[in-house]
């Protein structure tokens, strides 16, 4: 049975930010439960078209059923949004009016026990958005060196006690389930202190490493900017500071004419602004939304509009730890 667990976050704000017009062509890079996609299709009728992408085949199955009444206006693709440029080329789907990235994972995935995203219930340590991908969380936990583990925890979880946790993980290996890992982390930190579970940052870090989330985000931001038509909107909803920092820096840089270092007297970068930042302050959920959907509490939305073709292609600067 089709049951919708995931409530789309900042839905009204997203539709406003995308400035959707009837007949518009939009891309939802993170289809999930199809909540944003359904609203985009509604607003862009008649004549609107939507390309929906998700790395998770389960999300594609779910959204295919949910969006069946729009089937002539929708193209759903099971792929990584890091391949956005190729996907758009393959399906001749560019330029577009709007692109949405609603990052991270959906409630459907979080509540799906066998996926191993949550430490609330026991499951194998998996955490892959795409089950066809090779590297799982268990593989990283059981094969990475202590130094690599500490780095993953520090960089992707902003975990202060990264070395202590990494040392304990290496001592306790093999660790194959979510509860086993949660207990190892709890032990390493001397039990629970405060409201947040001590394994929260470790689980976030692992999920980011397994799915190469920050690297994919850097890649898709550049590609999305290329795929947008002039006047098109890029809307990104992120859920932790690492993602938001990448989005903020990307938009700020692309909105500048010169990106030479501050001590350079004569500009030699050849860069010119391709984006205009639409909201100077990040958009966050209203009190009402927070009450209705506490899982929206960390959401931050940033919006930019394309004003000119991009001048430079960026190099990806993030190191990554998984093989896929
Ligand atoms: C927060 S959910 C999106 C929820 C959706 N906006 C809705 O209204 O139901 C994020 C989705 O993005 C997908 N995702 C995350 N990273 C991805 C990537 N690199 N490529 C493709 N899909 C990705 C996840 O599988 C998940 O289904």
- Uncertain runs are 313-324
Strand order of the largest sheet: 3-2-1-4-5-7-6
Number of strands: 7
* Assembly category: single chain
- How many distinct helices? 13
How much of the residues is beta strand, in percent? Answer: 5-15%
Mean pLDDT: 92
First-last Cα distance: 32 Å
General description of the model:
This protein has 324 residues and is an alpha/beta fold. It has 2 domains: 11-106 and 213-306, Rossmann fold; 112-211, DNA polymerase, domain 1. It contains 13 helices and 7 strands. The protein has helices at 11-18, 35-44, 57-66, 84-90, 107-110, 137-143, 146-157, 162-172, 178-188, 200-211, 213-227, 241-254, 287-292; strands at residues 25-28, 49-54, 74-78, 96-102, 228-238, 275-277, 300-306. It has a 7-stranded mixed sheet, with helices on both faces. Helix 7 (146-157) crosses helix 8, helix 7 (146-157) packs across helix 10 and helix 8 (162-172) packs across helix 9 (178-188). The chain is globular, with a radius of gyration of 20 Å. It starts with 10 loop residues before the first helix and ends in an 18-residue tail after the last strand. The relative contact order is 0.14. Residues 313-324 have low confidence and may be disordered. The structure holds S-adenosylmethionine. S-adenosylmethionine (SAM) is lined by residues 6, 8, 30, 32-36, 53-56, 59, 80-82, 102, 104-106, 129, 211, 216.
Notable traits:
single chain; 324 residues; alpha/beta; Rossmann fold; DNA polymerase, domain 1; 2 domains; 39% helix; disordered C terminus; binds S-adenosylmethionine
